[in-house]
UniProtKB/TrEMBL annotation:
Protein name: N-acetylglucosamine-6-sulfatase-like isoform X2
Taxonomic lineage: Eukaryota, Metazoa, Ecdysozoa, Arthropoda, Hexapoda
Keyword Transferase set for record: no
Pfam families membership: Sulfatase
Keywords: Glycoprotein, Hydrolase, Signal
Amino acid sequence: MLLHIIPILLYVGPTFGFIQQLPSPNILLLLTDDQDVELHGMYPLQQTTKILSEFGTKFTNAYTNTPLCCPARASLLTGQYAHNHMTFNNSLNGGCNGHQWHTIFEPRALPVLLQKHGYQTFFGGKYLNQFKGAEVPPGWNEFYGLHGNSRYYNYTLRENKRNVSYANMYLTDLLRDRVVQFIHNVISEHDQKPFFAMISPPAAHAPFTPAPRHKGVYSHVRALRTPSFNTPSKDKHWLVRSAHRLPNSTVVTVDEYFQKRWETLLAVDEMMVTLVSLLKEKQCLDNTYIIYTSDNGYHLGQFAQPFDKRQPYQTDIKVPLLIRGPDVPVGLLMHMPVSLLDIMPTILEWAGLLVPNYIDGRSFRYELLQMHQMNPLSQQRVLLIEYWGEGNDDTYNPACPGQHTDHLAECTLDADCHCQDAWNNTYTCIRDFRFKRDRIFCEFKDTEKHMT
């Protein structure tokens, strides 16, 4: 079997140099949907946590740059902030899978760069919310992209050259089978190329449908009763401050969604075990970087907000990030602040590529290599978090109080008509970790201006 070789940039003191030829590393990225950290969202992934934490590094201060699916995913793929890649929200008008994405940003996204460098690439699952399967995006050798937003049954995938619909196949399990076959095929080739595989299952996104084998596993669990649970707050911005205490019926719904979110993640945990076992069986686990993260977090009852993301608070902006692979420290807790933006430049350096100057993210490859002499300045970091409210005439729900001109959004009966977004729920925040401050400062597009 022939292995593709690239010159690996090794640190040998005060300067970098190409020291030795090593096999190109494989890269496996598992991206979940709306998975929180603050509310113990990693609890169902016991085996994943063991595999990646005990044999890798767990990041304790990882954040999304935008707490919403499409902008966050576009940032992960480009390494750029939303104000640079112009995907502002989940709508086509907001740039999600729109003209600028297709013509400017997608052609230079992560899979394109890796494919040009000799990688075999795979994508399976939710791509961008407005992806409708017209064609395979550039850079993917194998592509199984979900049409639209996350769902577990009754979905359509763009499967390479055609669109295929499924009614009764649980999506997470199908994605597991597709990526297993891809890895098996790549590793079995005589002229073995390195692979980059990105899997994006629907968990833990609504409609929170667990696999039948996992239904009811957490029926005894309630939503985490944090100090702010079902407690309206008067020191937040107006949208959150307008929340009223949730009635018991809505609290029951919050508990049910909490349970089901955990149950959807059990199939993801099984998928990770299957993939790691396959890599170990094929004797390529030690040369594979495995990344586990989510596009954004989620709240369930905090400040009497029923369930959603979109807000600049820890539940919504903090995400899981666990990594194992060549030279990744084992059993380490990494407290250095990082953003989803940082994943792309880190992957490029792992693959032996230079990081383009238009990328906003900062590679943390060096910090992982040099944990024994960590630069204190790496802890003194400020992260940018931004969001554009989606409320407009079309987001009005006549079943709830209010009117079209209020431009409120995400107002639903199961949330007791608490509107969880608005046209001016638009903000720019600085998540500041300098000098052990650990604080956030936000400016909103409203008459109140800021929040600390």
